[in-house]
């Protein structure tokens, strides 16, 4: 362990990662660089500075990455209508590659030879951090304390804190959740505790970012989202930066009881786990993006996207954002978004985010003169359908004549 | 046109198909056999008998196909978590293959040489009827009056009725909708009229099977669905037939404002069209099925299903239910459902169908002793994760060492 | 038919398309513009000028498109290792989009309102020409004489020639093949005649571009192909243009009995058909491209390409080169080729095109120090494999413990 | 290491696995059960008995698994036209699941608590053995000596032999290859040594099962293969068991210089490796199976198979034969083979295995009356093609009218 001189730690300022600072200093006899990012988790990041300093950290990075996060990670992912296992909006997964990237960049800047993080050995996050780090800095070393140390019970951890004068109310006075939580501008997640019983319905006060549908206003809220190349650029006509778009949607959705999800998912490391997620803004963004695409995107492009989406979602979930295959898929996806321009009108009401209108001045492929049930003045020759059907049926007829049975 | 002696018509008893009866008799100088099926559209089918008789039809088939419809078509489709274009539950599409099958079976029984239907030349339904018919009876002839005749305006149609003594209130006294509608036990659809403007929000009284979320009860309804091999066999412990399951779910969902969808979709014949759909029960069934699978289905089986689902949905939408490729995919899907057994608890509330619990006595693959955040007593060795990550990262590291950039 | 003033015809200079010139002039009373392209079919194109002129054609386009054909169509397709139905190198399919593009460009230049071609109503080529034309010029009209006229027997055609003073030896004195043939720089195809019996082995003298393996030299020929970004830029160190690369490979392969294929394929219009193809150069290019990729392309990028290749091939075969979905797939494919640089050594011998070596100075991902069976000096920690296997097995073990059977 | 009482070893009778016998006895102080299978590797298995006995092994399993191997593993795999990375016939991969299955079955029979194998920590085979074992016997322990011991050089291994009186000419007097080889009835593989330079062409005498194309007979050999449900049941009219079919094809192909492959492949554990393979019979079987399918299999079924094949191949290569997803895919594949019946005629000549004819008495979907270039007597209405093309082009035209560019 003597070959580690300096390590960059993804440092939240909380108790666990504070313990890691000490443990790294002691175990590896190395310098620790802390990196604390505001990715919209809704907590102050500045207090991490004093804490790190108090533990003797000399190089302290505190950064606001919210715009970069939404612009370069969340938005590209939503262009693909991405859902993992049909339901999960990948709120945790999508934040990890950005952290991994900054960790190794800071390691290079500071001459560190390793990075470290506070993710456990059972979860997906260790994989996402480390695959990203290795992909961007192949010579980097990774220290994953939770896989190495023996502080694997709350008691041992507390003892370690006492031994090393780490104040146990480090994380502040805020109400302690019984759940393991992770938050960023896209979502907040809950795991562990009672959720380990998949039959158990979470109690109302677990949820933090949204009111319940029951508690939401009795009148709906209508909003209009403006899209350019598949990304939201304005809400109700007001142009906003990516992070501001997502912040505002989180507020609107959360106020209307929108964005809760309760699932059992399959982790990359092999087990099933229960997760509850609040993704208020994202829960509006998914159907809204599909709606603007429904008007402006060619059918076969849309179907091609749908056919590769599960793979794309799996890559992000499994931690392969920084991989050539994700990039190649992104090229395909982005190539379809040039004309995904226009407006979507959404109704928000007690948990429901409903598309009620979509329009595009220049890029609509919806041609009412063809689709109409009224006289179309020759725009479409119904007789063409006969040949279309006949030739599509030809192989089926030949097989049936051959005596093939369809059962 | 002299080679048609007898034609089996999919006859609703309504005005349009009544016109077709007359038009076929006159144009082809042939006998018409009418086939009217109860597939849960919510209208009496028996009145069709007298109407057909009045027009001189001698062979009249009136059948209750609700159980067959749900058991052999709806249920298999839901095993695949099928959605067309990410959103549409395929309510219209899935009823067509059954009608096509009965049409050609009746043609064989009655010695008819052709079938006929009332679908227009612009839509998907003509394709679904005809592909199905050709696949099952390769020598059958198809007469699609809307592609052939010149009664392509309301006035001409009315004139034809007058000329042939067809009472124009044939369809009964019920409120006339301004929309083109289609219904079966799975859903009701609305097209045309104001909906041809995709920015226009449908008025509340268009919807027929559900109350609005606003009008739904202020207290949630909880239900428990019991699954066997991927199919619902009981609601709240009461064993029900497939059609009874769906009927009951329709009622429960409709009462709670659940099941409305408003989309622009891509038709197989090439244009985009606006459709509004009410699929009350189906909107419960989709997340519920995913929930029971989340507990009982292997990860890679689930992902494999997800990867072929868009293709499977496209096949059904496009009318290829009766095709060898749909059957081959069904084999794959059904092979995954043997252990999809257990219960799902759902909360129904003002438009939301939310999974709040899932359990399986014998088939749960959720292993709390492994997934736990607590001490797992050695069920999972966290150190394994290092090797897992290292080998998964190997190709990425080699590439990065080679100087490859990921951007 | 009075609304056609001018039509651009894909004119080979042969008998059939000469008949079409006359038939168009007469039937549509319109001006005909002829377009004759050298795409490497191995026949003089210049003689078409005099023939067209003799029939009164005023606007005559004769173009050498060989470089454009290989550079913009053949090369991009080979980047994807494209095979239709596992075997067919798409020699005919890939030439059609270029012809379609020039037809509509010439139509625009000359103010023509229609295009025309000599493809029959049973084949894929009509589809490829017309889809391409419609995609690039949505308002164009298409005249497909073989679907319209009644000259559907050799006798009627000859009578038409006699009536219109078209010399029946128009196509020249060269030996008449009993097969329907099509050629370009990538391949030559044979259909019809005896080939309509799929059990019948084609006689040796059907093949035109290659000697038989039996007649090929008894000594092998070795060549080295140099790749840049997935495209061949040099043979045996000599830099060549795309068309010159393909010409030279055709010669080398043909001389060594390489490139024959005899298959039954599935046409887009619904029937199976027997086709024999000679694709000499292409038969070298496919394994060579795979070989250079095997050294320089990341595993998952390669597998991703393989997973979309059948779809990509189908698009080209079916005539959707000019479609947004083909373009989106091309973006994905091209994004993987930046590092596909290096040399492949091939042995050509009596029908076999065998890879015997591959190297890349800067882009090889083959790391002998890791892969070696010898001591690797710590480049790879074999113990990592245990964790890798254990976690990959976890879901399988949980299922087996649950009593799941794998059979 | 005290918890292992008995271990079943995949024992070849060669030096390495003999060392493992001793090493296991000594290291784990446990009983060793040897399992030696004839899967067509072309070496006597019976001598393994005396060797095992001499080392004190009491339970010795020696089995002829050739028929089971071909019938239950090779044949199902060939139904899918399986190729890994476009070229590799998976000869090594497909034998592993059978060995894994027998290992755990014997463990159960003999009350052993572990299995062991002689695969290294760098290769795919360890993964295949162990995933299979864990999937079938979730509680089994696995001992992989090459990942554990320190005998990682030839010298240490020799010293171990000397120390434990293991005769170093254990493997017999046969010529020692400089390559790492693996053989079964489907193929023989070569790795390591000079092959670690991917530019190096293997010397002629490396290959063992085939003559070179140059040395093959100057006259071709013709054979006819008869298929039932996708499997070969007879050669030249003689019904043969699966293993006899493959043996005979190996002989025919090997004699004609057929079946050599030289590739760089991507291992599951993350690195690229060079492999040379001789798969004589398999190299005939692949195009032959495609040929009989080309006549008897529906187009869309064939394309569906092609679209999932890369995934299926990857599963087998990576060691997931014993997984629910492979089984689900197998259901899909097998569902397409019911009508894959008939004969394929192949020409074997100096490295080439060429299809020259295919026929099926009852299951041919090739309809010459439709496909013909001659008059088809109305079997196909060429005018249908116009509607087919028009509707397929509709979305492209609408997009082009909207001003979309295709580039």
From TrEMBL, chains A, B, C, D:
<feature type="binding site">
    <location>
        <position position="265"/>
    </location>
    <ligand>
        <name>L-citrulline</name>
    </ligand>
</feature>
<feature type="binding site">
    <location>
        <position position="37"/>
    </location>
    <ligand>
        <name>ATP</name>
    </ligand>
</feature>
<feature type="binding site">
    <location>
        <position position="277"/>
    </location>
    <ligand>
        <name>L-citrulline</name>
    </ligand>
</feature>
<dbReference type="InterPro" id="IPR024074">
    <property type="entry name" value="AS_cat/multimer_dom_body"/>
</dbReference>
<protein>
    <recommendedName>
        <fullName>Argininosuccinate synthase</fullName>
        <ecNumber>6.3.4.5</ecNumber>
    </recommendedName>
</protein>
<feature type="binding site">
    <location>
        <position position="118"/>
    </location>
    <ligand>
        <name>ATP</name>
    </ligand>
</feature>
<dbReference type="InterPro" id="IPR048267">
    <property type="entry name" value="Arginosuc_syn_N"/>
</dbReference>
<feature type="binding site">
    <location>
        <position position="128"/>
    </location>
    <ligand>
        <name>L-citrulline</name>
    </ligand>
</feature>
<feature type="binding site">
    <location>
        <position position="124"/>
    </location>
    <ligand>
        <name>L-aspartate</name>
    </ligand>
</feature>
<keyword id="KW-0055">Arginine biosynthesis</keyword>
<dbReference type="Pfam" id="PF20979">
    <property type="entry name" value="Arginosuc_syn_C"/>
</dbReference>
<dbReference type="Pfam" id="PF00764">
    <property type="entry name" value="Arginosuc_synth"/>
</dbReference>
<keyword id="KW-0436">Ligase</keyword>
<feature type="binding site">
    <location>
        <position position="120"/>
    </location>
    <ligand>
        <name>L-aspartate</name>
    </ligand>
</feature>
<feature type="binding site">
    <location>
        <position position="88"/>
    </location>
    <ligand>
        <name>L-citrulline</name>
    </ligand>
</feature>
<feature type="binding site">
    <location>
        <position position="93"/>
    </location>
    <ligand>
        <name>L-citrulline</name>
    </ligand>
</feature>
<feature type="binding site">
    <location>
        <position position="189"/>
    </location>
    <ligand>
        <name>L-citrulline</name>
    </ligand>
</feature>
<keyword id="KW-0028">Amino-acid biosynthesis</keyword>
<feature type="domain" description="Arginosuccinate synthase C-terminal">
    <location>
        <begin position="179"/>
        <end position="398"/>
    </location>
</feature>
<keyword id="KW-0067">ATP-binding</keyword>
<comment type="subunit">
    <text>Homotetramer.</text>
</comment>
<keyword id="KW-0963">Cytoplasm</keyword>
<dbReference type="InterPro" id="IPR001518">
    <property type="entry name" value="Arginosuc_synth"/>
</dbReference>
<dbReference type="GO" id="GO:0004055">
    <property type="term" value="F:argininosuccinate synthase activity"/>
</dbReference>
<dbReference type="InterPro" id="IPR014729">
    <property type="entry name" value="Rossmann-like_a/b/a_fold"/>
</dbReference>
<comment type="pathway">
    <text>Amino-acid biosynthesis; L-arginine biosynthesis; L-arginine from L-ornithine and carbamoyl phosphate: step 2/3.</text>
</comment>
<comment type="similarity">
    <text>Belongs to the argininosuccinate synthase family. Type 1 subfamily.</text>
</comment>
<feature type="binding site">
    <location>
        <position position="124"/>
    </location>
    <ligand>
        <name>L-citrulline</name>
    </ligand>
</feature>
<feature type="binding site">
    <location>
        <position position="125"/>
    </location>
    <ligand>
        <name>L-aspartate</name>
    </ligand>
</feature>
<feature type="domain" description="Arginosuccinate synthase-like N-terminal">
    <location>
        <begin position="6"/>
        <end position="167"/>
    </location>
</feature>
<dbReference type="InterPro" id="IPR018223">
    <property type="entry name" value="Arginosuc_synth_CS"/>
</dbReference>
<keyword id="KW-0547">Nucleotide-binding</keyword>
<feature type="binding site">
    <location>
        <begin position="10"/>
        <end position="18"/>
    </location>
    <ligand>
        <name>ATP</name>
    </ligand>
</feature>
<feature type="binding site">
    <location>
        <position position="180"/>
    </location>
    <ligand>
        <name>L-citrulline</name>
    </ligand>
</feature>
<dbReference type="InterPro" id="IPR048268">
    <property type="entry name" value="Arginosuc_syn_C"/>
</dbReference>
<dbReference type="InterPro" id="IPR023434">
    <property type="entry name" value="Arginosuc_synth_type_1_subfam"/>
</dbReference>
């Amino acid at each position: 362990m003597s070959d580690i001189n300096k390590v960059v730690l993804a440092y939240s300022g909380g108790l666990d990662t504070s313990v890691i600072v000490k443990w790294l200093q002691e175990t590896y006899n190395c310098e620790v660089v802390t990196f604390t990012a505001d990715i919209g988790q809704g907590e102050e990041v500045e207090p991490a500075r004093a804490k790190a300093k108090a533990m003797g950290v000399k190089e302290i990075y505190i950064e606001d990455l919210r715009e970069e996060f939404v612009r370069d990670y969340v938005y590209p992912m939503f262009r693909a209508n991405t859902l993992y296992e049909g339901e999960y909006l990948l709120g945790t997964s999508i934040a990890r590659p950005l952290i991994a990237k900054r960790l190794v960049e800071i390691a290079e800047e500071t001459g560190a030879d390793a990075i470290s993080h506070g993710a456990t050995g059972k979860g997906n996050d260790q994989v996402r951090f480390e695959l990203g780090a290795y992909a961007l800095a192949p010579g980097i070393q990774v220290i994953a304390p939770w896989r190495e140390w023996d502080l694997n019970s709350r008691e041992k951890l507390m003892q370690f804190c006492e031994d090393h004068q780490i104040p146990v109310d480090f994380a502040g006075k805020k109400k302690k959740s019984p759940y393991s939580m992770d938050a960023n501008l896209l979502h907040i997640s809950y795991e562990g505790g009672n959720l380990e019983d998949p039959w158990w319905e979470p109690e109302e006060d677990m949820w933090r970012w949204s009111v319940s549908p029951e508690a939401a206003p009795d009148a709906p809220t209508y909003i209009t989202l403006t899209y350019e190349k598949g990304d939201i650029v304005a809400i109700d006509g007001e142009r906003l930066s990516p992070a501001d778009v997502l912040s505002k949607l989180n507020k609107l959705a959360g106020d209307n009881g929108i964005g809760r999800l309760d699932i059992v998912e399959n982790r990359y490391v092999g087990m099933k786990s229960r997760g509850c997620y609040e993704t208020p803004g994202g829960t509006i963004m998914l159907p809204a993006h599909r709606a603007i695409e429904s008007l402006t995107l060619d059918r076969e492009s849309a179907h091609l996207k749908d056919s590769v989406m599960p793979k794309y979602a799996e890559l992000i979930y499994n931690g392969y954002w920084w991989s050539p295959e994700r990039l190649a898929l992104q090229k395909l996806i982005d190539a379809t978004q040039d004309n995904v321009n226009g407006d979507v009108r959404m109704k928000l009401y007690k948990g429901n985010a409903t598309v009620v209108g979509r329009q595009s001045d220049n890029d609509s492929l919806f041609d009412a003169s063809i689709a109409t049930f009224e006289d179309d003045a020759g725009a479409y020759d119904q007789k063409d359908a006969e040949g279309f059907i006949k030739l599509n049926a030809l192989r089926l007829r030949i097989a049936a004549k051959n005596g093939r049975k369809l059962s």
